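Sharing a chain and its predicted structure for anyone who wants a worked example. Both blocks are below, sequence first, tokens second.
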Amino acid sequence: MASSSESGCFDCVDADPHDANRTNVPGGILGLSLARRKVETSPTDERALEKHQVPRLQLSGTNEWQSLEIVQALRRVVAANRDPPRRADLLPFLIASYRSRSAKAILLVAFGLVLPATIAAWVAQGQDAIRLLLLVFFGGFLVLLWLVPSFPARRARRAAQRGVLAAGEIVEVHYRGPGDRTTVDATANGLARGSRRVCHPKGEFTEKFASDALWARSLEPGTGMWLLVDPIRPKVLFDLGPMTRSNAIGEDSGAPKSASQ
């Protein structure tokens, strides 16, 4: 995939060039100048955020269980082979997913609540039909909880196999600090929501995003992002983190350069 400077992606100006509040992208990687703002919000500010609209808006599912462990496993695969298709085994992603904070919370519920209920249904006395119904219900729920962490692992594996490494840039972001209960990881990392531009092989698009990743607090307008995108559709498959020197991916193989460099 050509770098953003070669493809001309983001070579546009959406703000008045004479605007004193205009912020330029560090290093000029994305060649984009925008009037940007970062807002620390409270839960009551979510209504205003929902009204935010940008041209060619795409809705993103990138807040769906993108734990640090899974992202690290993805980065290792992409660093070894920048261009898809890539070889990606499922086992490393399963291990990463089951080690995540979200998986541990789910397994705690499974072992702490559902398993005792399943055992109680097994040993309970009463009508056989009722016992069987309770056993099937709690037993099925227990199996489902055990399997839940495997779903994001499989999704990450598919992204590793076919996702195209692309550049993105934060346009607007609203951050809610640690203690947010939207997701398990948000309780520790906080939650960042906003919009970003994505340099897709088929053309630039803008989407809403949400991130409860470890780097959520550091996101601000102009931050460059590493993204894995669908090769055909305008869709982000996974966030791989901000473009920083310590977070470089495949620089020697021609990947887009970091915005901070």
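Comments welcome. The first strand starts at residue 12 and ends at 13.
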